[in-house]
Amino acid sequence: MTIQSDRARDALLDAAEELFARNGIDAVSNRRIVEHAGAANHSAIAYHFGGRNGLLRALVERHHDEMSRRRRELMSQLDETPNIHELVTTRLRPLIELLDSLPKPSWRAQFMSQISAVPSAVEVAREVIGDADLPDDLRFINGAVDGIPEGVLRGRAYLLGSMVVGVCADQEAKMNEDANQGSWAQVGRFLIDAAAGMLGAPVTDPDGAVRYPSVPLL
Asked: Cys-Cys with 74: which of 90, 95, 110, 203 at CB 3.0–4.6 Å?
């Protein structure tokens, strides 16, 4: 692609992320995205992404490789017996760092929170992230938390994914309106502490884990 084509593609991604974040995915037409991006060609989404699903895939994939590399880097720094707090940090810190690095106003967390409301978007996210991504990044799923059954951990991990996305979306919206709303570093420390506490909490019913069909959107 040429530099001009790359810029046009990025402008479409920026426009779609903002509009989806603010209005919901199904409420925004391709034409509106193109116009918001300042493009004259109404078939720009088909040209750059092959269609709407390709656009959604590109948005979900955006920053995914970057965060995966950062998670692998953090994992490589752990000793052989990391505690749950250290393991959760490797998962959540890259997300918080990303959100902190984005230009303001930002829309990434709010876009992520909209995905679960649209089946087609959930399917795209499942294809991009996939269950195969979990064991490498979430070592606590494979027995790093003594006495917590794997099924319970997987259920808790899914709940935490939803919780983290919701909290980050709310925080991002507040920061867009008012810069004096704390910092991403503070939010990250709070979420890591809360997540570690939930994952390691006592289990009263080992067989009562709730099973979720969708992957966490983290």
From this structure: 90
Q: What pLDDT shows up at residue 131? A: 45
Long-range contacts of 77-80 (CB under 8 A, 24+ apart): none
Q: Give kind and range of the element (H or E) at residue 173.
A: helix 150-177
> Does residue 108 contact residue 169 with C-beta atoms inside 8 Å?
no
Please state which of the ranges 42-46, 58-62, 159-163, 171-175 shows the lowest mean pLDDT.
159-163
Give mean pLDDT, residues 195-214: 78
Q: Which of 23, 42, 26, 46 is nearest to 34 (CA)?
A: 42
Distance CA 74, CA 60 (A): 22
How is residue 169 written in tokens?
Answer: 């979306």
Of the listed ranges 80-94, 131-145, 189-203, the least confidently predicted one is 131-145
Cα–Cα dist 160/183, whole Å: 20
Angle between helices 3-23 and 52-61 (to 10 degrees): 90
